[in-house]
Design brief:
Elements: H1 2-19, E1 40-46, E2 49-57, E3 60-69, E4 80-90, E5 97-109, E6 115-122, E7 125-131, E8 136-148, E9 153-168, E10 174-177, E11 182-189
Antiparallel strand pairs: 1-2, 1-11, 2-3, 3-4, 4-5, 5-8, 6-7, 8-9, 9-10, 9-11
Length: about 190
């Protein structure tokens, strides 16, 4: 008799667990919407130059900065060239998707300036050498937002919050926090 009660309770518990409707809903990631590029190459144009990128998925982009900056800001003096890889992680969002941005820049500051040194090598003539400023390695961290009109076109903007000089330029490594400039642009994916 005792065994039949245990069997009855176990059967009732089994029926209760199996028959109870599940309230779990399918979790929809808004980054996986139609309006985010997915496995697509792209090009971009911004106020500092251009980019070439690849959307590994709707939430993660890798690219290369191709920046030739003609204006002065707090981190650089004069014209500078900035070439290097970047990564962008887009968070969930409907119309506007916030993102975190990290870039490694190989920066050639004061690109428009050079000094000429004339040295005599032999009686046949002179050799003219051009001395360019030292290359700098910088790390940029930024936060921004992007709006995709469709899977192929997006506009974006971010504010640089960290600008770290890792090496080069004959200066010691430094890290600057705060508003370090902004970037706005448009991306086209194919």
């Amino acid at each position: 008799m005792h065994f039949s009660k245990i069997l009855g309770v176990a059967a009732a518990l089994l029926v209760t667990v199996c028959a109870t409707p599940s309230f779990a809903q399918l979790d929809v990631d808004k980054n996986r919407s139609y309006f985010s590029p997915d496995n697509q190459f792209g090009i971009g144009f911004n106020n500092k130059g251009g980019t070439i990128q690849y959307a590994l998925g709707p939430a993660f982009h890798l690219g290369i900065n191709l920046a030739l900056d003609f204006y002065k800001d707090s981190a650089h003096s004069g014209t500078f060239y900035d070439f290097g890889p970047y990564a962008k992680f887009l968070f969930s969002g409907n119309v506007i998707k916030p993102y975190a941005y990290a870039a490694l820049g190989l920066v050639q500051p004061e690109t428009g300036k050079a000094s000429l040194n004339k040295t005599t090598t032999d009686s046949a003539g002179r050799v003219i050498t051009v001395d360019l400023p030292d290359m700098e390695v910088r790390i940029y961290l930024a936060f921004g937002a992007e709006h995709f009109f469709d899977q192929n076109v997006g506009i974006y903007g971010h504010v640089n919050l960290v600008n770290a000089l890792v090496s080069g330029g004959g200066r010691p490594a430094t890290t600057e926090f705060g508003l370090q400039g902004a970037t706005v642009g448009v991306e086209f994916f194919f």
